[in-house]
Write a structure and sequence with these properties.
Blueprint (H helix, E strand, L loop, with lengths): L1 H12 L4 H13 L7 H14 L7 H14 L4 H10 L2 H15 L7 H14 L3 H12 L2
Helix pairs in contact: 2-3, 2-4, 2-5, 2-6, 2-7, 3-4, 6-7, 6-8
Length: 141
């Protein structure tokens, strides 16, 4: 009887738009070197278009909102917490892949980009071997 209420509460606690939250984390990678390259932005806008309902705002407007929120944010711990609460292991690995894709978009992996990716992966509970494996996938492209 009590499990029913617990499960219902867990569903209510889940963040509403995990795709947007995931893009916020990916933005932190793109902006780690304080310069979002045109190629990084192009991939980012394409990911917005693929994952977010654009009936209210354009992908550029959503990008601008994400950028503005990033400037206000002191830490991305809340983003990680929302992802941990709402996504399974495979979905977290998909976010990891998105971060590597954006980091390698400009053909240069900045040290700060890699630090954010590795720290995020650690906080998401992704094994270092998977982090390295996914890094190699995008390094070869």
């Amino acid at each position: 009887m009590f499990n029913f209420f617990k499960n219902k509460k867990l569903e209510e606690d889940k963040p509403k738009n995990l795709e947007l939250i995931s893009l916020c984390l990916a933005f932190e990678v793109a902006n780690a070197d304080n310069d979002i390259d045109e190629r990084e932005q192009k991939i980012f806008l394409a990911k917005i278009k693929e994952t977010i309902d654009l009936s209210v705002l354009t992908e550029k407007e959503i990008f601008d909102v994400i950028e503005e929120e990033s400037l206000k944010r002191i830490s991305f711990y809340e983003i990680i917490q929302d992802i941990n609460n709402g996504l399974n292991k495979d979905e977290k690995i998909d976010i990891l892949k998105l971060m590597w894709e954006i980091a390698y978009a400009d053909d240069i992996l900045d040290v700060e980009e890699e630090k954010i990716i590795r720290r995020s992966a650690e906080m998401l509970g992704i094994k270092p071997s998977i982090v390295l494996q996914t890094k190699q996938e995008f390094k070869k492209q």
